[in-house]
Amino acid sequence: MGSFSISGRVCWALLLGQGVSLCLALAGFNTSLLASLGVDSPLAQSCFSYFSLASVYGAILLYRRHKLQVSWYWYIPVAFLDMHSNFLLNKAYQFSSITSITLLVCWTIPWGIILTRMFLGTRYSILQLVGSAVCVIGLALVLLSDAESDDGGGGSMPLLGDGLVVVSTIFYASSNVSQEFILKDGGLVEEVLSMLGVFGFLFSLVELFAFELEGLASVNWSAEMTWAITGYTLSFFSLYSMAPYVLKLSGATMLNLSSLTCDMWAVVIRIFFYHQKVDWLYFLAFAVVLLGLVMYSRNEKDPVPGHDLDSESSRQRLLAEPNPEAIAGNDSVPLT
């Protein structure tokens, strides 16, 4: 990524973070479109999405002939957490309201802060915590607007849906923090994405055959459904292609804070497709969240966590194969 000045790094982190948030909104739009067409296929969506990551980034990794910088088995729990965070969140929409889910997704922020502090040794300044709080206040304005429009829906089993969201946020934060650790300790972006894709695809495929195949067989597929799944896959692929760079530039907490604007981007999408009128609170909320993101980023002292092991080589050995050739290979391949 090159050497960034503080202002340059902040700009890139903000820009990529909003790209991730926009892709998240597009993925949600396509999922809701599938639901409106009577298709309940979170595992099938995951299969296509993780397969796209494995195919593209796996091909890049093979073409460049890079050896794995991190042992393959470390990616199994990361992919498990990542895939099931997406699955549980999609399932929650069947039981709880959109407003409730949007509010509970904020739990990714404290989980991310706690996990990065515990496992990466990241230290947060008071101004960074204030910036995080400002982001949440911005989201509260969105929820206020939703409540006034009474467009959230009650949900059939709200307690179950809310519980699924909370578990999803724990999984999501854990996956993000794990990826941040791998990327900042020598992992290649292409490697992380390809291995996430491989194991995410395998987990999704096994569970699809176990739980979802019969339901999919009964669906009368149409061109609109196909386009919705294609749109979801492209959005997912773009999101995951940008997210590692946010993790490298500013960490998991910045990525989680950036995703708070997802609901505002969803409004923009609804305006474009449905010519929906927008409450002025959405624009104010977007500005407040961006202000909080700038506050957080500008007061970040160093994008490298204060994880105190004996040396950089010992941190590499924690993840690398106990093979002398594999360890020696770490010094020859730069981060991308």
Automatic annotation (TrEMBL):
Residues 304-336 are annotated as: Disordered. Its main location: membrane. Keywords: Membrane, Transmembrane, Transmembrane helix, Transport. The chain crosses the membrane at residues 43-63, 70-89, 95-114, 126-144, 156-173, 193-213, 225-247, 280-297. GO terms for cellular component: membrane. Signal peptide: none annotated. It comes from the Eukaryota. It is found in: Membrane. Pfam families: SLC35F. Residues 304-315 have a biased composition (Basic and acidic residues). It is a multi-pass membrane protein. One of its GO terms (molecular function) is transmembrane transporter activity. The keyword Transmembrane applies. Belongs to the SLC35F solute transporter family. This is Uncharacterized protein. It comes from Linum trigynum.
